[in-house]
C-alpha cells in the first residue's frame, strides 16, 4: 500500500530541517522489522512474515532511510518483483517526526530508480490517488480496489467449518515443523497458486511456508488421480497482534469460507484478542459479505490499484483474501 508521507508540522519533536546525516540505501534483513513497525505506527499494517518473504524473494527492491547520527531506520519503501515482470510498490513510510523533509520523496525516487523500465503497481490510498495517477506515472487504472477489512470478531462460529465440505475433500495443515514431510503438497499448492496468479511464485511461497509462525491450510480433492489442490490459505500475525489471513485462494465460495474459518480456528493466538485484519478486492462479494454480515468486521478503506505500463493478468475468480496489502493480491 502506498501513501505519500508529507507533513509540514514540525512541532512536538519534529525535525524542521535535515539537522542530521541522512542515508538512503538498500535494506538489510534485520531492518525489515523496524520498517514494518514504522508502517504500523501510520495505521498501516502488514505481517512481518509476509514482508520478510517478499524481501527474501527479491532483496534488491527494498530501501531504508537511516538517521546516521542514531543509526536508526526512520523510513522505508519497497518495490520487489512480483509476477509478470511487474514490481509492486509498498511499505512506503517515514517516522512522523521526520516527515515533511523530503525523505519520503527520496525513498520513492530510489525505488522508482530500481524499477527502471519494469512495470510497477501500487494500491493508492484515496487521498493520494490523483497524485500517483496524474503526477507519478501510475496511469493504468485496473478498475479494482483492495478492500481493507478489520475489527474484533467473537463470531467465528458463524462461518462454515470443514464438516460442511463434501467427503471428497481433505483438509491438511502445513507448518514449518512438518514442512519436510510435505514436499509433494507444497508443489501442488504452488501449482494451484499459479492458476490464480497466472505466473509461478515458488520462491516467494517456499519462504513464506518456512516461517515458524505461519500456518498454512490446503484442501485436496481426493477424487482426482493426483489429489489436486482446490484451495489454500495462510494466516499470520500483524505487528499489533491481529490475526491476518492471506493469501486465501479457492475454486468456490464454500471452500473459501471453510478455509477462512479453519485458519482462524487453527490460530491459537486469535483467542487472546479476537482481532482480525485482512484484505480482499471489491470484486470478491462473498468475502465482503462474510466480513460484514457474519463476522461483524468493518470495512476501513478501499485503495485503487494502479500501474505504470500495463495491468498484469490475474484470476480474480479464485481470490478471497489478498496476499499482502503492500505487494498486491
From TrEMBL:
PROSITE patterns: GNAT. InterPro entries: Acyl/Acetyltrans_Enzymes, Acyl_CoA_acyltransferase, GNAT_dom. Pfam families: Acetyltransf_1 (PF00583). GO terms for molecular function: acyltransferase activity, transferring groups other than amino-acyl groups. Residues 22-166 form the N-acetyltransferase domain. SUPFAM superfamilies: Acyl-CoA N-acyltransferases (Nat) (SSF55729). Transmembrane segments: none annotated. This is Gnat-like acetyltransferase domain containing protein.
